[in-house]
Write a structure and sequence with these properties.
10 strands, D-Maltodextrin-Binding Protein, domain 2, 5-stranded mixed beta sheet
Length: 276
Amino acid sequence: MKSSLAILIAVLVFVLAACFNGGASPSSGLSSTVRATATAQAHLTIFAAASLKGVLDKARTAYEAAVPGMSLTISTDSSSALETQIEQGAPADVFLSADTTNPRKLVDAGLADGVAVTFASNELTVIVPTDNPAGIQSAADLARPGVRVIAAGDEVPITNYATQFVGNLANEVGYSASFVADYTRNIASKEDNVKAVVAKIELGEGDAAIVYVTDARASTKVATVEVPASANVLASYAGVVVRASADAAAGKAFLDWFAGPDGQAILTGFGFLSPS
């Protein structure tokens, strides 16, 4: 009888141990930092570049499944606008930017908890409406008289990258010495962020625009024009935990996860490149 009782107790101990330590836990395979957040309810607000919207919609589902009790709110806009909002006290836990400049501003101002983490890179392309009414055949046509170019605001990261790109194109064989000036003259409007730029082209309210490869890939209503690889610009994306976060540890856990293998797999699926 005693031996039977001892066996029963041993079986119960084994089962309980498996429940608490089992590999079937939703947080298995995650870092110890991430697993630590799974023991309590938590909520994070993520401010992110507009070009990350699709990625973060998928990342939110994956992360909430991996970390029980966690919920994410995603807010997207131009990186420059979001950085300004954080400076002004907007409640955010993590900031994911389409450049390294805006996260570095927060670090330099003492508004970030830790250093900026580079998590992805992107390239540029030229998009046109699918019916291409202006007959854009190459990037050189961006400077052709009468072409309506849609751009973003001066402080938006895509504009900084596009400016570098246009400058590089001006040095390519076959491009005129006045290419930069002619391109600039063709800018018909400046939008709040890159998603708004794409929307204008989708609606046929512009003839062409310079956007990220990932944004062109995400739209079924635009076509791309081949650009010289030698002139392209690599855009680096970086993120920081906001110092004013109510749960900086959970914010860091998410940023580590997003920059790690699971986040990289999602980013790659949307056409982003590895961090440069």
